Each structure stands twice: as structure tokens, then as C-alpha cells.
């Protein structure tokens, strides 16, 4: 049974349970697993805008809080969890496994979509599940934080960066040089780190849909 729009789910990950929102449109051609950035959550308005557009394009989405409520409260004071890339990557990989076991998503091609530090988690999951993750998209991400996992990624990877986000653009180009698969550093002209400028997030959405349409295989009928 497909999830209703905005359907709340609880995803087990090792010793914790993570809150998420799963949407699977009728006849979905794939599912996109989101990893939010540092200090953000599944309620990120930009990720939710991207997810809604992907749903309209025929893709399922899982927006997930990678930290528990208690961890979020600690992190708001100490910032000790938001840069724990191994923790975030492990939890995103657990979510990918959870999606693989669901009747409505288990047969669908999977992509990971990461923003900011979440991009590193998205790439780690792709490296850990090469037979499962078919594509990766990073929005204003820090793929460099994926470290040694970059060389193990087998999924075609799109790195979307704002043209006015100079430092992050340099980091993305350096990370791209370590990828051994099909990849693209795609610069959105005039955009800063959060893609708040008019039309820039819409450009992110359009390029993401094009990438997914190109690389996600057709779901079994």
C-alpha cells in the first residue's frame, strides 16, 4: 500500500528510531532518500520543495531526520552531531535498507539526495550499497567530507553548486576529482549556498529531475 502524501514513518537505525515522511506516488518510477544538512531537519523548506517537485515528476521521496529529538537538542547547543559524518552516513544507509524491505519501495530504483553535510552521507550510502543506489545528487553539498568513500561510489553523481558559493564550489571540484564514476559539477549561476535567489531552486529541481530520468533504471512492471 502506497504511503499517503506526507505519510509519517519511523525508521529503525541501530539503537535509535528516526522520524521521516514517506511519499510514494502511484506508479512511482523510483524513490529518493534525502539527507539534510547541518542544523536542519526533514522540515527544511528547500528540501521539501524539491521533494514535492520530485513527487510531481513521478518519484517517491523519504525525508528523514538523521538525529533523534534528544540528539537535536544536544546538537543545537554543542554542534557535536551535525559533523559526525560516519554517524549520519550509517543512519542513511540503514534507511536505504529499510526502503529495500518495504513493499511499496523495495522494487524501486533508489537515489540519494544530500544537502550541505548531508551530501557526504548520501555518498557514503552510495559507496556502502553500490547495488542499491543508482544515482546521487548533492545540493550545495560538502562531498569532500565523504573522504575515502568517494573512490568507492559507483552511482552517477550530480554535484549542484551555486555560482556565488565560491568556497563550496572549490570543495566540490576537488571532491569530483576523486570520483571514478560518471559525474558532473553543475553550477547554478547567481546562486549562493542556500539557493535563495529567485529561480535558483527551481533550476536545482529541473537539473535533478533530468539526472534521475537519465540514470534511474525503469522499475519492474
- What's the number of domains? 1
CATH architecture: 3-Layer(aba) Sandwich
Strand ordering within the main sheet: 1-2-4-3-5-6-7-8
Shape: globular
Strand content: 15-25%
Explain this structure to me?
By secondary structure, the chain is an alpha/beta fold. The protein has one domain (7-215): Alpha/Beta hydrolase fold, catalytic domain (Rossmann fold), CATH 3.40.50. The chain has helices spanning 45-56, 69-78, 85-100, 118-128, 166-176, 200-215, and strands spanning 7-13, 16-23, 31-35, 60-64, 110-115, 133-139, 157-162, 183-188. Strands 1-2-4-3-5-6-7-8 form an eight-stranded mixed sheet, sandwiched between helices. Helix 5 (166-176) links the parallel strand 7 (157-162) and strand 8 (183-188). The radius of gyration is 16 Å and the shape is globular. Residues 1-5 have low confidence and may be disordered.
Output the keywords:
single chain; 221 residues; alpha/beta; Rossmann fold; eight-stranded mixed sheet; 8 strands
Summarize the structure.
With 221 residues, the protein is an alpha/beta fold.
Write the layout of secondary structure elements.
Elements: E1 7-13, E2 16-23, E3 31-35, H1 45-56, E4 60-64, H2 69-78, H3 85-100, E5 110-115, H4 118-128, E6 133-139, E7 157-162, H5 166-176, E8 183-188, H6 200-215
Parallel strand pairs: 3-4, 3-5, 5-6, 6-7, 7-8
Antiparallel strand pairs: 1-2, 2-4
Amino acid at each position: 500500500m502506497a504511503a499517503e502524501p506526507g505519510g509519517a514513518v519511523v525508521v529503525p537505525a541501530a539503537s535509535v528510531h528516526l522520524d521521516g515522511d514517506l511519499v510514494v506516488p502511484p506508479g512511482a518510477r523510483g524513490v529518493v532518500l534525502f539527507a539534510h544538512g547541518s542544523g536542519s531537519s526533514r522540515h527544511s523548506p528547500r528540501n521539501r520543495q524539491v521533494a514535492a517537485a520530485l513527487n510531481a515528476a513521478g518519484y517517491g521521496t523519504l525525508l528523514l531526520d538523521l538525529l533523534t529529538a534528544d540528539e537535536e537538542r544536544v546538537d543545537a547547543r554543542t554542534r557535536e552531531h551535525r559533523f559526525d559524518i560516519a554517524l549520519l552516513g550509517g543512519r542513511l544507509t540503514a534507511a536505504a535498507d529499510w526502503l529495500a524491505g518495504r513493499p511499496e519501495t523495495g522494487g524501486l530504483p533508489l537515489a540519494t539526495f544530500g544537502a550541505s553535510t548531508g551530501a557526504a552521507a548520501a555518498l557514503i550510502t552510495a559507496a556502502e550499497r553500490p547495488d542499491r543506489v543508482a544515482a546521487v545528487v548533492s545540493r550545495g553539498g560538502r562531498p569532500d567530507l565523504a573522504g575515502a568513500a568517494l573512490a568507492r561510489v559507483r552511482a552517477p553523481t550530480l554535484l549542484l553548486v551555486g555560482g556565488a558559493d565560491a568556497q563550496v564550489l572549490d570543495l566540490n571540484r576537488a571532491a569530483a576529482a576523486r570520483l571514478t564514476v560518471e559525474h558532473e559539477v553543475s553550477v547554478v549561476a547567481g546562486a549562493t549556498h542556500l539557493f535563495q535567489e529567485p529561480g535558483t531552486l527551481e533550476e536545482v529541481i529541473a537539473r535533478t529531475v533530468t539526472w534521475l530520468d537519465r540514470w534511474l533504471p525503469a522499475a519492474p512492471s
